[in-house]
What we know:
Blueprint: E1 2-4, E2 8-10, E3 28-29, E4 32-33, H1 34-46, E5 52-54, H2 58-61, H3 66-69, E6 72-81, E7 84-86, H4 89-105, H5 111-115, E8 118-119, E9 122-124, E10 133-137
Parallel strand pairs: 5-6, 6-10
Antiparallel strand pairs: 1-2, 3-4, 6-7, 8-9, 9-10
Amino acid sequence: MITxxxxxxxxxxAPIAPHRLDFLMKLKVAGKSLKSHWQVAYEESMxxxxxxxxxxxxxxxxxxxxxxxxxxxxxxxxxERDGKLKIHSTISKKARGAFLTALMExxxxxxxxxxxxxxxGFHYREDLxxxxxxxxxx
Length: 138
């Protein structure tokens, strides 16, 4: 599933129009913020899931209640430059897209399968990971 401030929670292959709408914008729907508008739908879409792979940005993640966020396995993407690991928004955004493509193309359904993935020059790093956050380095 993919989350969107415009469409809600939709199937990964659902066609959508390009847009730049996020929960930080001051748009109101029926007098409610976008976050409030979508909260129930987001919760309903995930309430029966035992394990959730989350590529959500922090603004989207907070739309879900704590009980659902606790089921999420998150990911961080880093780049090694001059012997130092760096995280920045451009790398993370591009890596999330490439990672999602790799997950779908390989029909990945488990954490163990994720750990074996290599994509766009990124590889899993166990030493930088935890049970709830998996790290990939380029």
